[in-house]
Write a structure and sequence with these properties.
With 293 residues, the protein is of the alpha/beta class. It has two domains: 206 residues, Metal-dependent hydrolases (TIM Barrel), CATH 3.20.20; 58 residues, Orthogonal Bundle (DNA polymerase, domain 1). 40% of the residues lie in helices and 14% in strands. It is built from ten helices and nine strands. The strands form two sheets. Strands 4-5-6-7-8 form a five-stranded mixed sheet. A four-stranded mixed sheet has the order 1-2-3-9, with helices on one face. A hairpin with a 7-residue loop joins β4 and β5. It is globular. The termini are close together. The structure holds adenosine monophosphate, zinc ion (ZN) and fe (iii) ion (2 copies). The site of adenosine monophosphate has 11 residues, from α5 and α6. The site of one fe (iii) ion (FE) has 4 residues, from loops.
């Protein structure tokens, strides 16, 4: 069992990379990829911990991309070099765009009569890339809402009064960056992007034409029908299937590493296609551990 989608304190997860590895081992996970939002700063600590625990580990990232008319388009990258100049440059850009947006959200909340400060938000960000989940936590701590879901449903979600659009990188740009840095590009949680099956198929074909390599077939919130649908589309379009929990720690407390809500179970052999594509045996950003593939 593997898990190719987890977040750490380097973005909006609540656990350090080494802690994620410890939990993975405890749950019987044999392969793990760290996929923080728009940052790879946790990679060194993560791969060291994988080596020490002898589990299979892949460097990773989750890029927020221009959704082309859909909900959220996130592209996962695996096995890429965190120090490749394009990665460094584009992550700096993405983090600047995030920061502009975060400050506008705080200003909007202030205009709505909530005296939240930037320092209130930073308390919840530790060392990571700051996003709406941290603003939500600050609103809870300042007792302006009762929980983070309420923060989103009252203020932060699209269409709500403190929502702020953000500039994203084009999906093609994200895919090309991942490839340039030696990795593979995978469409994350496709149903959070396009809910309608026909639009989704057209959208996935478009991303395939842009060079995407895989699709996240197994995902915590997917029903078995959605999983089967994605597996079929992956076969028809020529994507390899991947899977992960989207573990965030205390920010999404119902999700466990490797298990999702309970029965996620991504098979080890999903690694075979990824390993071939990223030349795993000679890739310094892949730790070959005990996953059987
Ligand atoms: P951002 O990257 O700043 O746009 O924030 C997006 C993140 O916020 C997502 O990855 C989710 O983890 C979280 N999020 C989005 N919508 C909700 C919601 N309704 N309730 C709780 N968390 C949410
Ligand atoms: Zn997140
Ligand atoms: Fe995502
Ligand atoms: Fe995620």
């Amino acid at each position: 069992m593997i898990d190719l989608h987890v977040h750490s304190v380097f973005s909006d997860g609540s656990d350090a990379p080494a802690e994620l590895v410890r939990m993975a081992v405890e749950s019987g996970v044999t392969g793990l990829a760290l996929t923080d939002h728009d940052t790879m700063d946790g990679t060194g600590e993560f791969l060291d911990a994988c080596r020490a625990a002898t589990i299979t580990g892949l460097s990773g990232i989750e890029l927020s991309c221009e959704p082309l008319g859909g909900g959220e388009l996130h592209i996962l990258g695996y096995g890429l070099n965190p120090e490749h100049p394009l990665v460094v440059e584009k992550m700096k850009w993405a983090q600047e765009k995030r920061m502009e947006r975060n400050h506008r959200i705080v200003a909007k909340l202030n205009e709505l009569g909530m005296p939240l400060t930037w320092e209130d938000v930073l308390v919840h960000a530790e060392k990571g890339v700051v996003g709406r989940p941290h603003i939500a936590s600050a609103l809870v701590a300042r007792q302006m809402v009762t929980n983070t879901s309420q923060a989103f449903s009252l203020y932060l979600s699209k269409g709500k009064p403190a929502y702020q659009e953000r500039e994203y990188m084009a999906p093609q740009e994200g895919i090309e960056m991942i490839h340039a840095a030696g990795g593979v590009a995978v469409v994350a949680h496709p149903f959070l992007w396009l809910k309608d099956s026909h639009r989704l198929e057209a959208g996935l074909r478009k991303l395939k034409a842009m060079g995407a390599d895989g699709v996240e077939v197994r995902y915590t919130s997917h029903t078995s029908e959605q999983m089967m649908e994605l597996l079929r589309l992956a076969g028809e379009i020529g994507f390899f299937p991947t899977g992960g929990s989207d573990y965030h720690g205390t920010r999404k407390p119902d999700i466990k590493v490797g298990c999702g809500f309970s029965s996620l179970c991504v098979p080890d052999d999903y690694l075979t296609a990824i390993f071939r594509a990223v030349h795993a045996t000679e890739n310094p950003f892949v730790v070959l551990g005990n996953a059987s593939c």
